[in-house]
Design goal:
This protein has 398 residues and is of the alpha+beta class. It folds into two domains: 229 residues, FAD/NAD(P)-binding domain; 151 residues, Helicase, Ruva Protein, domain 3 (Orthogonal Bundle), CATH 1.10.8.260. It has eleven helices and 22 strands. A six-stranded antiparallel beta barrel has the order 12-15-14-13-16-17. Helix 1 packs parallel to helix 11, helix 8 packs across helix 10 and helix 9 packs across helix 10. The radius of gyration is 25 Å and the shape is elongated.
């Protein structure tokens, strides 16, 4: 949609082909339906949140940055608000308002929209894109922009199958891999914590002896493992080979306290009720759902009076508070991944125009490029920036 708008603003005659019955189907579900459509951080900070190939996005980001995105939507009637972490949302909390803003402006620009239309192939004439083949016939064009999405949430229409078209025509692709995705774990006690959300915890993800990710925030236990903002962001730093090495997620339940302070706090609670059974003595320190799991993992007899808990046993308990671990054995795949890592290799694309080097008149944008970022509106900013650059970079093509 942004590519179509940028192209039409340059005076080109634009046709937008959409596989689904409506526009913005995946956009509709982003941010749990609220649509975190960009991040209002300083423009140079955008690069810090891009995981794959941030330098490739230099021209795209500075050509149409996050302040440009905010100004664009505000100019075209969308009221927005900035929340924690500089996340930008429509003031209404309805993603449909973002889509409606784009649709309304596209109609004003005279962009032709073809719904229920599936791309089948490119029409190439001497290594130049001269149109597309669809399930409703051929369309001739002086330039073609592909914004086909990735493989995440295939129910929204982007299943990655159309990537094969580019591969068939000699464009090199990095294999698709789910990212910003919930993780599955080995430990059998984790499903018992299903539904428990932890706030203000610190999560560390290590692969072997290498620290891949460390951050404070919120996470969630599920029937299969772990999810929530911290885990989704952390998944960006794991690749396919890492899962064979069984990454370890370590959760610091009390990040504001060092081990000595945690021990003092536990000891104080024990001394207040010395005859209380151990399994009943942690209610001031932990969520109720987590207590039985902590008790079992500690190895301390659950019925033991807390006055009998030894210093060594308490030391093990403190270690659990500061290092509650889960062993990762996989992820939930594309059906639950927010984004796709991989796509058209950046070396195949001119970063100043988004033009595919091997095929003249062909441009790519968005999630189908091998760039991806953390949560917080950064992936949608990539979409707006690369789409705008592709649409405005057509030169004199009609």
């Amino acid at each position: 949609m942004m590519a179509a708008i940028a192209s039409a603003e340059e005076g080109h005659c634009v046709t937008l082909i959409e596989k689904n019955e409506k526009l913005g189907k995946k956009l509709f579900i982003t941010g749990k339906g609220r649509c975190n459509f960009t991040n209002a951080c300083d423009t140079n900070e955008l690069f810090e949140h891009v995981i794959s190939n941030p330098k490739f996005l230099f021209s795209a980001f500075y050509g149409f940055d996050n302040s440009s995105v905010l100004a664009f939507f505000e100019t075209h009637g969308l009221r927005y608000k900035i929340e924690r972490g500089n996340r930008a949302f429509p003031a209404s909390d309805h993603s449909s308002d973002v889509i409606r803003t784009l649709e309304t402006y596209m109609k004003q620009l005279g962009i032709k929209i073809m719904l229920h239309t599936t791309l089948k192939d490119l029409i190439l004439t001497q290594d130049t894109a001269t149109g597309v083949v669809t399930d409703k016939g051929n369309l001739n064009a002086d330039a073609v922009i592909l914004a086909l999405g990735g493989r995440s949430y295939p129910a929204c229409g982007a299943d990655g199958d159309t990537w094969k078209i580019l591969s068939k025509h000699g464009v090199d692709l990095v294999p698709a891999f789910p990212s910003l995705v919930p993780l599955t774990v080995e430990e059998e006690d984790i499903p018992r914590l299903q539904g428990l959300s932890l706030k203000n915890v610190r999560v560390r993800i290590t692969v072997g002896d290498k620290l891949r990710y460390e951050e404070m925030g919120e996470m969630l236990f599920t029937h299969f493992g772990i999810s929530g903002p911290l885990i989704l962001s952390g998944s960006c730093f794991l690749n396919a080979q890492d899962y064979d090495k069984r990454p370890v997620v370590s959760i610091d339940l009390k990040p504001a306290l060092d081990e000595k302070a945690v021990d003092a706090r536990i000891l104080r609670d024990f001394q207040e009720a010395p005859n209380k059974q151990f399994r009943n003595a942690l209610s001031k320190l932990l969520p109720a759902k987590l207590i039985p799991v902590i008790v079992e993992r500690s190895g301390i007899e659950m019925d033991k009076p807390v006055h009998s808990v030894s210093k060594e046993e308490r030391r093990c308990l403190v270690h659990l508070f500061k290092n509650f671990t889960c062993t990762v054995n996989g992820n939930r795949g594309f059906n639950e991944a927010i984004i796709t890592r991989g796509g058209v290799r950046c070396s195949e694309i001119d970063p100043k125009t988004m033009a595919v080097k091997k095929i003249r008149g062909l441009y790519v944008a968005g999630e189908m490029i091998d760039v991806d970022a953390q949560t917080g509106g950064f992936n949608l900013q990539i979409a707006w920036s690369t789409g705008h650059l592709a649409g405005s970079g057509l030169g004199g093509k009609a």
